[in-house]
Amino acid sequence: MGYGHVAKAFLKLLASRSEELLAEFGVRPTISGIGSQSRGLTLYPEVLSLEQAVQLVETGADIHEAGRQVQHLSEFIAGGKAAGAVLLLELTTLQPKDGEPALTHIRSALEAGLNVITANKGPLAFAQAALLESAKKQRVQLRFESTVMDGLPLINLAQFTLPMVGMKSFRALLNTTSCLVLELIEQGSTLAGAIRKAQEIGIAEADPWYDLDGYDAAMKTTIVTNTLFNSRLTPSQVKREGIRALSLADIRAAANAGTPYRLVSKGRIQAGKVTALVQPMKITADDIMQVATGTTSLITLETEAMGAMTLIEHDPELMQTAYGVLSDLITILRQNPTLTAPN
Amino acid sequence: MGYGHVAKAFLKLLASRSEELLAEFGVRPTISGIGSQSRGLTLYPEVLSLEQAVQLVETGADIHEAGRQVQHLSEFIAGGKAAGAVLLLELTTLQPKDGEPALTHIRSALEAGLNVITANKGPLAFAQAALLESAKKQRVQLRFESTVMDGLPLINLAQFTLPMVGMKSFRALLNTTSCLVLELIEQGSTLAGAIRKAQEIGIAEADPWYDLDGYDAAMKTTIVTNTLFNSRLTPSQVKREGIRALSLADIRAAANAGTPYRLVSKGRIQAGKVTALVQPMKITADDIMQVATGTTSLITLETEAMGAMTLIEHDPELMQTAYGVLSDLITILRQNPTLTAPN
What we know:
Two copies of one chain form a homodimer. Helix content of chain A is 41%, strand content 22%. The first copy, chain A, has 13 helices and twelve strands. In chain A, the strands form three sheets. Chain A has a six-stranded mixed beta sheet with strand order 8-10-9-7-11-12. Chain A has a three-stranded antiparallel beta sheet with strand order 1-2-3. A three-stranded parallel beta sheet of chain A has the order 4-5-6, sandwiched between helices. In chain A, helix 5 runs parallel beside helix 6 (121-137). Chain A is globular. The two termini of chain A are 22 Å apart. In chain A, 52% of the residues are buried. The model of chain A has no long low-confidence stretch (mean pLDDT 94). Chain A binds chain B through residues 13, 17, 20-21, 150-153, 156-157, 160-165, 288, 291, 300, 305-317, 319-320, 322-323, 326-327, 330-331, 334, and chain B through 13, 17, 20-21, 150-153, 156-157, 160-165, 288, 291, 300, 305-317, 319-320, 322-323, 326-327, 330-331, 334. Strand 12 (307-314) of chain A pairs antiparallel with strand 12 (307-314) of chain B, so a sheet runs across the interface.
């Protein structure tokens, strides 16, 4: 589901790893259907090979041509399963209000016994615990590494490499649009000019205020918080303040004083109570966050047993999001090498 | 094997997680023997509970009291196995020349069908590939997260969270003693004073020149290189240059120019050929390495699919090394929940 930039980059990346996938897992991925917001739902009863799928991407051919259109999600899932599908990739564009229709896509796929990988923050932010329970019940996996900091292994780090570490808190820069807009204003841009620049490089959401008012950061903060602390916050429980109230003069004065504003996410667990917030803060000169310029994102974890550690993703591009999807796919394969649906 | 600071910190950490281990894996760890450089090999045929072991640590009681001394490693391993041991912890002090006797401890334990966790760089730097093959043959695990950057999940990150990422190169500050000594000299210390300070905070090796001449960094570089690139370098194949040739004036002039010297590790794979080096380099003002002050260590990975990412371990203490051992133990438990030796 979703046939935009991320899906296309992922198909190419997957094709580039096809020999490794075959050698390590004996798997040759095929595509049994593509759902596109503009072109609807198309099934390929004979499945597309990866080569055919990459050709579709590269020629820009109509996804309908080699397939059969269907109207309803249930038909799409049933038709996909009939052609052997064991996995749904949910890569549609975020709808920040309630995470739909991606949430329905994921819920339906899990209930049909498909594994799911998503790069879409919405469904996770609104329903992570319920979706993970559904996946567990169906004995399939739901993976979502790319929802936060693209493919940088933050979700998987927490799951696989920091067991019983005693997570205490985190501080992070998770919304690159707002950081970049602040930086451009510091360098003399107008607000409109800074937003235009962020849109040009393709990182801003369709409505830039969704970034600048902190909604994107609040969703990511929700996912990180719930993943690290095993909690059940919803985005509305994240205290949220965007950069709207900061004047150009405020922004430039703070930067000139060596303590620039950035839109900071924080979460913590204390005496079993989990809280999280998103708000503009002045970054002091000795703060590790000073290193995150441009589109670089960063998170510092505070733990009981490992003290503090920081992960930085430098200047990510589209490929990094696609890689997160690939790494999720390999994680699923490792735990279920035949990747056959259990029911 | 090894009953120094790390072993003692680990026993306390393990005890603090005993409820979680019981709840998640149904496991209650016991100790069937302790080997100490000064006190020899002691077996506990009735095994020590974790509470008894922590009491030994806290009272400083003689490890012989509750046990039976043996002379030979083979007796120690056989006696441990007879009491139910499934795991050897190798936490002795590094012998930089050839990694012995730790290498023999690990090799013998693996051959006897024990899982092994080590925080000792030597055996891994000299024989990682051979030891991993021995472990595989015996269907046991050899884990070594704490050999580099303590418990920061670098080894496990590579193994579990960055599959098929296309590792290209890394740059790192892995030896904190040399970085701290350089920093103290920049601030006006003499070389002897700086070394004394590093020894006081307990991070320098017994012979500080082992750090300052780059031997420690070369070993860690060997392990990181072989882990990331699946290669078989030995420490002598790492081009090594320490900070011995830098004068105090050189060091201070570079720092005053905003480009301080640090002992940098680098490794890369290019057209299938793997190379690695350790040498003092001037760190430019825009380099992420500038953030690593004090005992903070840092690594930047360059990858094909995920671009560049940096991991920073801030001001580690003993606990971080102990945590790496615990995380390795949990990794083994996850893959073998009953933790029974296969033969």
